[in-house]
Amino acid sequence: MKEDVQELWLQSAKNFQQTMAESMTKAFESFQNMDLGEASAKMMTPVVKHPKIKFSPEKLQALQHQYMREAGDLWADSVQGKLTVTDRRFADAAWAENPMAIFTAASYLLNAKTLTQLADAVETDAKTRARIHFAVEQINAATAPSNFMALNAEAQQKAIESQGQSIAKGIQNLLHDIQQGHVSMTDESIFEVGKNVATTEGAVVFENELIQLIEYKPLTDKVYEKPFLLVPPSINKFYILDLQPENSLIRYAVAQGHRTFVVSWRNPDASLAKATWDDYIENAVIKAIKVTQDITGAKSINALGFCVGGTMLGCGLAVLAARGEKPVASATFLTSMLDFADTGVLDVFIDEGFVKYREQEMGKGGLMKGKDLASTFSFLRPNELVWNYVVGNYLKGESPPPFDLLYWNSDSTNLPGPFYAWYLRNTYLENNLTKPGVATVCGEKIDLNLVDLPVYIYGSREDHIVPIGGAYASTQYLPGKKRFVMGASGHIAGVINPPAKGKRSHWIREDGKLPKTADEWLTGATEHKGSWWTDWSNWLAAQAGKEITAPKTYGKGKYKAIEPAPGRYVQAKA
Fold first, then answer.
1. Residue 315 is a catalytic residue
2. Long-range contact pairs involving 173-178 (C-beta distance under 8 Å, separation at least 24)
3. Among the four 150, 291, 360, 439, which has the fewest Cβ within 10 Å?
4. Mean pLDDT score, 56-82
5. Which one from 307, 315, 320, 334 is the annotated catalytic residue?
């Protein structure tokens, strides 16, 4: 009986190996014959005519020979029971204990590696190669055997051990996620904005159709005379900066003695479908600066922009500079881009055809749905942010654990169509903000060379949304005294890194030099253990003026406390 099972497995494995070899032969042929218009269409971008991609015959032959050699080694190891894989998707013991399952996983990994090498070997322009890489990454992620119940040894074992309960729970999870409109990354029922996230004490002291302005209650007897305004990205909700008391950048700023104000964006609905970039700069960013001045009586304030909020803050400062106004004494830019020459993987989506399509679709009015934006960003890291949860939630019937950051990540926001269309063309496509006098914002031809003030620029080393080179590039345009700091990790984890945790590292260049590129800067930088927050706090304190008695009430004059923080706007769902 045992011999019959072994023979059956060997025959099955042999058939699988044959199928794999045939599939990869077809893949080589497909790559040779691929039309870039076809590839572009598959990546949800408008079809553009491109010449067929090419390969060096020598490279292609070498890859074919390498593949057949490694496939032979894989077969030999499987027959001898020596097959192992290191990918965490197949780390559970159930894979190793099932000969067919581990063989399937190893075969998949070989195929995935070879497809990626094929993408590397393509002879074409850099943008086309990046698009092919992106398409291959999506194919590789989606076709992993771990994504299918029929091939996932761990999910099968769990179904047996639970007597089918894991399958039943997986179906419940799937129905729940279909109803809510997105894959659950955390137990969202655990969190409530204002109850256990966004809990720093404060009050809304101003609102218009675009924003609420929140003033936070001082935690110190004295505060710096120059107030501090944070401009978060309008593409997300502000409470990424105020998740829990122990990891809240907002609370940290308040505790350092800064009289702190934060912009809370309204989640756009049909009434804002015609709102423009100019509306957001004039009536949100610049308005928040002026209201902060009015309430505090300060001649100038310090400001911070995070991600797209930094781009918007930079635009607002350039508009004010063009008008001869300088209400901001210093600016902090966290993982923000003013120069969009290096946009990383997001560049694969952007070309003239795509931007024109968006302009025709919603340039005069409409909404870019928050769930569509969230889906796009998730697929930038498909294994971690998509398939990991598909497998856990639906195949294994698991409930994801509560995690405040992932709750925030699922709490999406819409964008007005005209705002979105202007942003795509003038930043990602044409990079107009770096060209003096080319971009017109709020009736002013803007020039970043006029934004002359001390700036603190932070970039995250592994950021896939704002590449470190894109964050660093701002140092080459703003003329004031600049300090650049690089942190470890990615777009969010790198920023939200409180000192008390003692996690990660940051890099500083003590000589203050800012060469042309981030790579050149890094050669002279020194690594420091722990959070960059303390370095930034010291820098900000030096820009904040003398200490004065902390206010006892919120607002001033016509600016009364409207409602407790975090306010109504952040509660609205997309």
1. no
2. 173/393, 173/394, 173/397, 173/399, 174/393, 174/394, 177/393
3. 150
4. 90
5. 307
